[in-house]
């Protein structure tokens, strides 16, 4: 259901719209709300326990804890690409949690 969360974790604000993006890990999705906290939409393509989120240059970056991925989406939720595998080498993750894009 929109606005109902199961294990909410990371959140980010889109500076161009002031929309709030919240990782809803237990429901394997990201929910999006306007600045009045009204539900707008959610996206769940390629989601497997999203835990943190960052928005930079009109792209939404999401760390996925179970799949060990960093996924990239457009601000309207369209899946664009992903990187990562389980491991400890270059572009490999082991249960990623935090995220910051400088």
Structure overview:
With 102 residues, the chain is mostly beta strands. It contains no helices and 8 strands. The radius of gyration is 13 Å and the shape is globular. The model has no long low-confidence stretch (mean pLDDT 94).
What is the structure about, briefly put?
This protein is an all-beta fold. It has no helices and 8 strands.
Mean pLDDT: 94
Number of helices: 0
Shape: globular
Classify the oligomer: single chain
Number of strands: 8
Please report which band the strand proportion falls in: under 5%, 5-15%, 15-25%, 25-35%, 35-45% or over 45%.
35-45%
**Class per helix and strand makeup:** mainly beta
H-E string: EEEEEEEE
Strand order of the largest sheet: 1-2-3-4
Q: Tell me roughly what share of residues is in helical segments.
A: under 10%
How far is it from the N-terminal to the C-terminal residue, by CA? 33 Å
Tell me the radius of gyration.
Answer: 13 Å
List unreliable stretches of 5+ residues: none
- Strand count, sense and closure of the main sheet? 4 strands, antiparallel
